[in-house]
Inverse folding.
């Protein structure tokens, strides 16, 4: 089985520029090229890219994915390191959930305090203009779990 980059993209749901990026940074092996200089991908590319896509969907960063892929090349080794990576990621997810819960409560409070009258009396605008009026120290909250480390 050989696939063009477009076919690989369709089969995995990973955009073509992202496939090229993953190849460039070495988390998928460089694809051989046909006589027309087009990349041709095989079953191992498909399997690896599906792994990466699933890991990215779960919010793992590229460095963690690279480490997990390296570990998968020695299937008889202990899974302690893989477990450690997953546990660290789980803790980060829990921290984000806690941050987002604070953010949700603050936004609910702002909306509930708004009298829906004129902007000059709007609690949403007042609270956004003065962090001291917030009921929680929600700080700077990021909502993305996986970051933006790949194009497309």
């Amino acid at each position: 089985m050989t696939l063009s980059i477009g076919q690989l993209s369709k089969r995995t749901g990973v955009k073509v520029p992202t496939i090229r990026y993953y190849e460039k940074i070495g988390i998928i092996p460089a694809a051989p090229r046909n006589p027309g200089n087009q990349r041709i991908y095989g079953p191992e590319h498909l399997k690896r890219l599906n792994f990466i896509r699933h890991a990215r969907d779960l919010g793992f960063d590229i460095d963690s994915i690279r480490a997990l892929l390296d570990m998968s090349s020695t299937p008889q080794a202990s899974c302690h390191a893989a477990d450690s990576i997953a546990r660290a990621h789980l803790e980060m997810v829990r921290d984000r959930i806690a941050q987002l819960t604070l953010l949700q409560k603050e936004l609910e409070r702002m909306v509930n305090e708004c009298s829906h009258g004129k902007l000059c009396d709007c609690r949403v605008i007042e609270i956004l203009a003065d962090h001291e009026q917030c009921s929680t120290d929600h700080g700077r909250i990021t909502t993305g779990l996986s970051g933006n480390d790949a194009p497309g």
Remarks:
- Residues 81-133 form one domain.
